[in-house]
Structures are given as C-alpha cells and as structure tokens.
Design a protein that fits this description.
This protein is of the alpha/beta class. The protein is built from 11 helices and 11 strands. Strands 3, 4, 5, 6, 9, 10 and 11 form a 7-stranded mixed sheet that branches. A two-stranded antiparallel sheet has the order 1-2. The two termini are 50 Å apart.
Length: 294
Amino acid sequence: MQLQQLQYFVAVAETRHFTRAAEAVHVAQPSLSQQIKALERELGADLFLRARGNITLTDAGEALLPLARRILADADTARHEVLELVQLRRGRVRLGATPSLCTGLLPDVLRAFHDRYPGIQLLIEEGGSHDLVRGLARGALDLALVVLPLPTASPALTTVELLREDLVVVSSPEAPRPGGGRRTVRIADLEGERLVMFRHGYDLRELTVAACRAEGFEPDFAVEGGEMDAVLGFVRAGLGVAVVPRMVAARSGRGLRVTPLARPGLHRTIALAHRSDVAPPRAARELQRMLLER
C-alpha cells in the first residue's frame, strides 16, 4: 500500500468521479484508475461501486476512507516536521562546556544563535573535559568545548581548535597585590600566596598545580573544591588569589583585581569536539559554524 494510492483513493472518494479526481491530484486518469485497481487487488476488496455516472463507496471503501485520511495527514505532518528541522525552525543542540567557558565564551555566541534560530532548544551541560568526553562517547552530547590535550584513552573524537586563551591572576582589590605590586605576576610569585583552588578534575586546577610544581613549589590552598562562580566569590571575599581565564576575568571584573602573568605565562587551548563516527545534527553543525566564525 503506497501513500500515492491512498491519495488517489481519497480524491475519488471525495469527488465521486475518476476524471475530476485525476485533475485534482494532477495525474492522467488512466494512471489513477490503474493505481486504484492495484490497491483493490492488494486489499482483496473493491473500494468503489462503478455504475454509469455514479461512483459510490463499498463497505470496504467506507472503512478505509477515515484511515486513509489519517495516514495522509500523518505523512503530511511528518514532512513538515522534517522540513522544519532541515530549515532549523525546530530541533535541539546538546552542548557541553567547562564552567569557565559557559561564563566567558558562550553567552554572546548562544545569544546570536538563539536570535537567528529561536525554535532550536539549547541544552547546556557544564563539566570538566573528562566528563564532557564521556558524554560525547555515550551519545549524550552533540558537541563539547574541551581543553586540549584530551584525556588519555579518549574515544575517537574529531576536534577543531577554537582558541588559545591566556590565564590571569585575580585577587581582591583590598588585598596586597600579588607579586609585590608589579604589573605582571610570575608563577614563582605565587609561592607563599594563599590560592583559591578549583575542585579535583577541573582543568584549571591541574594546569595551575602543574605550573607551580614546575617552578619547584607546592601551592598553598586557602580554600579548594569550588566551581568557577564559587572561586570568584571566595577571591572577592579576600580568601586568596586564583588563576582563571582572561575572558572570565573580563566578564567578572567587578570586585576583582586582574593581573596578567609574565611571559611566557600560562595558556590553555580550547577545541570543539564531536564523535568521529556520528555526524552532528544540522542544528549542532550550525552552532559549530558560528563558534568557529565568532
């Protein structure tokens, strides 16, 4: 049973005339008649009583008519649903990002995406790169903003480098300036400073601790275990200093003193990742394009 056959059947049932039905569906009358006969053969029953100048439905035709109309309506709905997805009028994007990127990079890009495609639902998951890689692997995310290099034993992911971001030191304006008041701070100057530190598994924690150890000292934590907002709040309260991305510091500057790191400084590389074996949905590919062109 084909949708075209049901369409021809409904047209004849509504016009009670084969020629007018053929004109309504823009097909030659012999072709329409052949398709109706093929449908009757498949169903094993006549659908119309054909008397000269008088076409009526049989009992089988009466039973089929509401079902055929419903099937055609559902097919039409399906076509429109898919068309809306293809044209980005509806759909969703599941994007993972570290909390610092949610604070610094994403707000402006997501606002521009939402303005252009208001019917697309944006589902954002915050987490460290390890968690986001696992989310991509199990199909829970379409795209993720991760910090390179990826964790060892990562699944097959396609990554595109998005940006290389400087890290800076933030402190309370009421506290003494780290580094003795110089305009830049060396990593070595953080020895003896009380640090506000992110939770375990946080990319910035690992990067900062590794940089301190490379200078020959273990960092001293005033408080540890927070996410980005908590860390910034603790710094504002004067509990210590923290190393954060420049974009985050720029957006959260109220109540914070921002001091650049002296060359070579600290940097992190952000990449956009998706599974290599599955192409992202159309809406996710469009968000990917906007992120790369930002």
